[in-house]
Specification:
The chain has 73 residues and is an all-beta fold. Helix content is 0%, strand content 25%. It is built from no helices and 4 strands. A hairpin with a 5-residue loop joins strand 1 and strand 2.
Length: 73
């Protein structure tokens, strides 16, 4: 489920909500109770999978190819 950003037109409160893509966009502001509008955001998350360097048995996202244990980071 994506996280959507909402902004209230009445009090300018901005908040995030985790909801289904098919969910109705009629969301109430948690501060004042008025209708909040879903904002369009430009953030896109992309996961890239890389091959491990030669001699590295276990590639992990932390600390280089294998956490710094093989010396190739």
């Amino acid at each position: 489920m994506p996280t959507y950003v909402y902004r209230c037109g009445a009090c300018d409160h901005e908040f995030e909500r985790l909801e289904k893509m098919s969910a109705a966009t009629r969301t109430k502001c948690p501060e004042c109770g008025e209708r909040a509008e879903r904002r369009i955001t430009g953030w896109v998350g992309i996961a890239v999978k890389r091959a491990a360097p030669e001699g590295c048995a276990d590639p992990t996202p932390s600390g280089g190819c294998c956490g710094g244990m093989c010396g190739t980071n």
